[in-house]
Amino acid sequence: MRQEKDPFISIVLPVYNESAGIGETIKELANYVRARPERYELIFVNDGSTDDSADQIRAAVAENPTIRLVDFSRNFGHQLAITAGIRYASGDAVVVMDADLQDPPRVIPEMLARWREGYDVVYGKRRKRSGETWFKKLTAETFYRVLKAVTSIDIPVDTGDFRLMDRRVVNVLKQMNEQDPYVRGMVSWVGYKQVAVEYDRQERTAGKTHYPLRKMLHLAMNGITSFSTVPLTIANWLSGFFLLVAVVTTFVSLLLGRLSLLTWVISATFFVGAGVTFTIGLLGNYIGRMFAESRHRPLYIVADTYGFKTQAAQQTHYRYHALQN
Ligand code: UDP
Ligand code: MG
């Protein structure tokens, strides 16, 4: 059980050209905050909108002291908007949600309840997705399952960025300075106690999705390449296959006594192919290692320590990076 009395909760909302719906979102969240016993801040991150979304939020900032705006110089993308919002948040827990009310605020109390039970990450798992095309649902479902198959960390399926994170998870995320972050994967990677809360994803209140196929593919590639080096090892598998073909063709032609020029050329081609793909695979392994190093992820994260007498050791669960140095 968490002991925080009078907890402070940050809600982070990335905003990109939500002019038609942002007023409704602000109103709904302001009502939500008013009705709740916890203290809140609402952090809108304007991701370079070209409409009047930022103006609408600025007007709300002037009226409502719980509302804040982080205004990007241009469009940096959904994942970086979330990253920035998390960094500006000062809550004991941080909730990330869409600015189009697709993630309903009424789920937040449920998340808070799990947080109070001691969970560090409470993620929203989509039971139903209203108002989205079968194409989007199918591609999203397929992608989540492919990602799960190629990564060693447990990234939950059918889960977007709607989630609550405890301060200690947020503190780790703030240390992860990745260029092209796949935030939901990073949160899974951090570990601690994570749990799902199921909810029905709503239709957008207004406007349309800013995730066209191009951006979805980019996000999907990002998810795979930042959490899996399996694609780099494809060459290794190919080389094994080529070698097998080369050996089999050589033996078969030897056994059948048909050592024509053609069979030799075929075997030789596969031997050379096996050699080439083997060396490419070797490069892939080294590149994978360099890639892992270049992300500068913490080596490990200590959740708690017990029985240590020194103060330094007791602090390691927030200062995990001190252990690396
Ligand atoms: N968004 C953003 N930058 C972008 C695209 C989207 O900040 O480049 C915001 C958008 O305003 C919304 C959230 O990210 O609050 C999710 O985007 P969207 O609703 O378009 O995606 P979908 O829910 O359709 O997957
Ligand atoms: Mg949305």
UniProtKB/TrEMBL annotation:
Cellular component terms (Gene Ontology): plasma membrane
Record-level Gene Ontology MF annotations: glycosyltransferase activity
Residue stretches spanning the membrane: 234-256, 262-287
Keyword hit for Transmembrane: yes
Keywords carried by this UniProt record: Cell membrane, Glycosyltransferase, Membrane, Transferase, Transmembrane, Transmembrane helix
Locations listed in the record: Cell membrane
Topology relative to the membrane: Multi-pass membrane protein
Enzyme class name: transferase
Family under the similarity heading: Belongs to the glycosyltransferase 2 family. GtrB subfamily.
Protein name, entry field: Glycosyltransferase family 2 protein
Protein's organism: Lacticaseibacillus zeae subsp. silagei
Organism placement in taxonomy: Bacteria, Bacillati, Bacillota, Bacilli, Lactobacillales
